[in-house]
Amino acid sequence: MSAPGSLACSKILYPETEQSQLVNVEDLELPKGEETNMLESVSNGAVMAVQLVVAIIANLIVFLALLALLNSVLGWMGELLFLGYLFFPLAFVMGVTNPGETFIVAQSMGTKTALNEFVAYKQLGQLVKQDKLSPRSAMIATYALCGFSNFTSIGIQLGTLGGMVPSRKRLLSQLALRSLLAGCISCFLTASLAGVLIDQPILCRPQNEKEHCFDVNKFI
C-alpha cells in the first residue's frame, strides 16, 4: 500500500515541471558494452558487483556510526526518547489517541526512522506480548513501521546508486532527505487509512511457536 503512496508523495515533494526526455522507451539509448565474449562480461560484472557491495557496506557503517554518535550525545534525554516526542503528534493524528500508547507508538516510529524497521518490529512484538498496546494501536503501528524509510536505507541507496552512477552522486545526496521524508509520509498515510477503515481489529497472540494466526492449510 505504501509503494503507490510513495510515488504520489515524491511527485508532491519533487514535482515534475518539465517534459521528460524518456517518455518513450524507444528514446532510451543505452551504451553498448565493450566486452567481446561471455567470460569477459562475467568477469567485469563480478568486479563491478564487488565494488558496489563495498560501497554499500561503507556507507552503511558510516551512517550507523553517525546515528550512534547522535544517540550518545543525546543520551541524557534517554535512548531515542527525543524521537518519541518528535513523532508524538503524528502518532496522535494517525489515530493512537491514548496518551500512554501514543508515546509508545511514537517511540517505535522513531526507532524505525533512526535505525530500521526490523528493530522497531522486534520492539513492537515485545510490547504486544506485554499488553502495552491495544489492538487498534498495534495495528496502526504495524502499518506505520512497514517501510524502508530510515537513515540506514539512505546509506544503502547512496552506496548503490552512487556506485552505479558516480556522476549523479551529488544529486542523489541532495535528494536523500527528501526521499526519506516522502517514504515516511507514505507509511504514515497508510497507517492513517488503516485506522479509518478498520475500527475494531483482532489482535492474535500465539501461545507458542507452533501456533499461527493464519492457518494456510484450511484453504488448501
Automatic annotation (TrEMBL):
Keywords on this record? Answer: Membrane, Transmembrane, Transmembrane helix
Extract the Pfam families matched here.
Answer: Nucleos_tra2_C
Where do the coiled-coil regions begin and end?
Answer: none
Q: Does the keyword Flavoprotein apply?
A: no
**One Gene Ontology term of the molecular function aspect:** nucleoside:sodium symporter activity
- Give me the Gene Ontology terms describing cellular component: plasma membrane
Which InterPro entries does the entry mention? C_nuclsd_transpt, CNT_C_dom
Start and end of every Concentrative nucleoside transporter C-terminal domain? 1-195
Give TM regions: 46-68, 80-97, 140-163, 175-198
Protein's UniProt name: Concentrative nucleoside transporter C-terminal domain-containing protein
